[in-house]
């Protein structure tokens, strides 16, 4: 793998080419103060995001009981609260544009290793504080920010002057069936292999529909992907929405 290939696989590099065949998404440039916040030790959420989250929880409390949220400190040392109101306002607007639920990620990775810290153990976010908590808790996100090129054969950390423009990617939340997700491997612009995305689970229908699945994904790749993507060697994920359909419009990146 080379540095240029990693850069080409960065979400902002490919999204506009494939926006018609992938999930609706928004790309928000990360301000330096937010990048510094992600690098900082500990998890301290901005006060405005905590307050907004508490208000939303009260609105969702259908039982009518008042939720008592105590933000007072416990007498220990008080960490400095970060604040990026303009960035947060943009996030709120994009969440609203996505129907109120989003899936967050940075240029390459999502914080899928941090689902343990979310209320429903998923990456579904409805407010900025949900996003901050996942990003701050994820080693995958730290890797994106600090070592995205560490496995590249042509990367020299001591002499490299690569500048990455980091973005927060908010993708419209979709309730996807994991049995319909597949990972595809391309070498020399040829579709070399297809595997189920979640390899630790057995899905009986995959063997029964193997020929149809392969035909659908091959059609999708050669009609919709191969001529548009600039790399010769890469992997991509695809969602096959309907069983038994051969139209490439039934698949999504």
From TrEMBL:
Keywords: Cell cycle, Cell division. InterPro entries: CDC123 (IPR009772). Pfam families: D123. One of its GO terms (biological process) is cell division. GO terms for cellular component: cytoplasm. Belongs to the CDC123 family. PANTHER family: CELL DIVISION CYCLE PROTEIN 123 HOMOLOG (PTHR15323:SF6), D123 PROTEIN (PTHR15323). This is Cell division cycle protein 123 homolog,Cell division cycle protein 123. It comes from Mytilus edulis.
């Amino acid at each position: 793998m080379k540095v240029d290939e990693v850069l080409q696989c960065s979400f902002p590099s490919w999204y506009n080419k494939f926006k018609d065949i992938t999930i609706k998404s928004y790309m928000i440039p990360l301000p330096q103060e937010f990048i510094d916040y992600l690098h900082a030790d500990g998890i301290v959420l901005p006060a405005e995001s905590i307050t907004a989250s508490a208000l939303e929880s009260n609105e969702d409390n259908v039982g009518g009981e008042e939720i008592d949220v105590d933000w007072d400190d416990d007498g220990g040392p008080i960490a400095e609260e970060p604040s990026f109101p303009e960035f947060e306002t943009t996030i709120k607007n994009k969440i609203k544009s996505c129907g109120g639920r989003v899936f967050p990620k940075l240029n390459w990775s999502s914080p899928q290793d941090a689902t343990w810290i979310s209320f429903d153990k998923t990456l579904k976010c409805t407010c900025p504080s949900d996003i901050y908590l996942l990003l701050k808790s994820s080693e995958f996100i730290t890797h994106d920010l600090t070592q995205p090129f560490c496995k590249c054969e042509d990367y020299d950390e001591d002499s490299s002057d690569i500048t990455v423009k980091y973005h927060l990617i908010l993708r419209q939340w979709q309730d996807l069936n994991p049995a319909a997700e597949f990972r595809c491997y391309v070498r020399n612009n040829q579709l070399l292999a297809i595997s189920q995305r979640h390899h630790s689970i057995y899905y009986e229908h995959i063997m029964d529909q193997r020929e149809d699945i392969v035909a659908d994904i091959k059609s999708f790749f050669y009609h919709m992907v191969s001529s548009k993507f600039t790399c010769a060697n890469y992997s991509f994920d695809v969602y096959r929405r309907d069983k038994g359909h051969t139209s490439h419009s039934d698949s999504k990146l």
